[in-house]
Write a structure and sequence with these properties.
About 40% of the residues lie in helices and about 25% in strands. With about 280 residues, the protein is of the alpha/beta class. The structure holds S-adenosylmethionine.
């Protein structure tokens, strides 16, 4: 699937126009069922909503890769990033396979210098990721506004602060290898990522090679990947042990299991860094 960079629309109000917002873990996000309804009424060029509904499936390999819903490991990784006090300030971050984009939004809140979002499906970026980033940035601007001790007339208005936050963000859709090529060959300046965050992206072993090479090509020499996953994906075949074995055989990254979660389906957080890095 070809890669594409998505422009941030000028009319930000329009992005949130027909959306309903929900909150969890202090983050807000658009209600998926409402987005799905508008998509079924024609706002989905890829047709992934109707395909997902008619096949009763959250994953249609090569067509729809699950970004319309928020998968539970996203919340595991948000918890871990907070518990481990991972610092984002001044860093460049990639939310790989972002779906709703909550991991990238957490990095933005942590004062990251740049945050890039990637999803396989362009509908997900346009209808879910972008609105979520804008909705959370608006909240953040309001929060800063309330914390600000300056008199109201001297404070930057939300309309002024929002575009500022958004200049830190870029949005991409497409298959991992294609997005990597787009980033590396683009005329725009590109610096490799200090941190790559990725949740529920190792369910399909057919994608391991593309995923591994993307991480290897886009991560900074001293960068770090935080990958959240179920231990096993029943019915799809992927899982953490298979992925770790794959990574070990490639001999590029060292891995370390930094957290396991035993509630419900077993899940975990894997940290990856280049072999020989500090
Ligand atoms: C199961 S969803 C998880 C979404 C989100 N990270 C979460 O935890 O809610 C998997 C994500 O990985 C991305 N993805 C999976 N396979 C991909 C591939 N081969 N190329 C590009 N993106 C892919 C899709 O964009 C999809 O959003």
């Amino acid at each position: 699937k070809a890669a594409k960079e998505h422009d941030i629309p000028e009319d930000l109000n329009k992005l949130l126009e027909d959306k309903v917002l929900e909150t969890a873990s202090g983050l807000c996000y658009v209600k998926m069922s409402v987005v799905e309804m508008t998509c079924l009424n024609g706002a989905d060029e890829e047709g992934i909503v109707s395909k997902s509904v008619s096949s009763h499936s959250d994953l249609i390999p090569g067509v729809y890769e699950g970004g319309l819903k928020i998968w539970e490991c996203t919340f595991d990784l948000i918890d871990y990033l907070s518990e481990a006090e991972i610092q984002f300030s001044g860093k460049t971050i990639l939310d790989l396979g972002c779906g709703a984009g909550l991991l990238g939004i957490v990095a933005l809140r942590g004062k990251a210098e740049k945050v890039h979002f990637q999803d396989y499906n362009s509908t997900v970026i346009d209808k879910i990721t972008l609105p979520n980033v804008v909705a959370n940035c608006i909240n953040e601007c309001h929060r800063d506004d309330n914390k600000n001790s300056k008199p109201p007339s001297k404070r930057p208005k939300v309309a002024e602060c929002l575009p500022d936050v958004l200049t830190k963000c870029r949005f991409f859709s497409g298959e991992w290898s294609a997005v990597t090529q787009l980033l590396l060959s683009s005329n725009k300046p590109f610096s490799k990522y200090d941190i790559i965050l990725t949740s529920e992206t190792i369910y399909n072993p057919d994608y391991y090679s593309a995923l591994h090479d993307t991480l290897a090509q886009l991560l900074d020499t001293n960068g770090c990947v935080y990958l959240a996953s179920k231990v096993h994906y029943f019915g799809v075949g992927g899982g953490i042990y298979l992925f770790e074995k794959f990574v070990e055989e490639r001999n590029v990254f060292r891995t370390s299991m930094v957290k396991t979660i035993d509630k419900g389906l077993q899940r975990c957080i894997l940290e990856m860094a280049f072999k020989g890095s500090s």
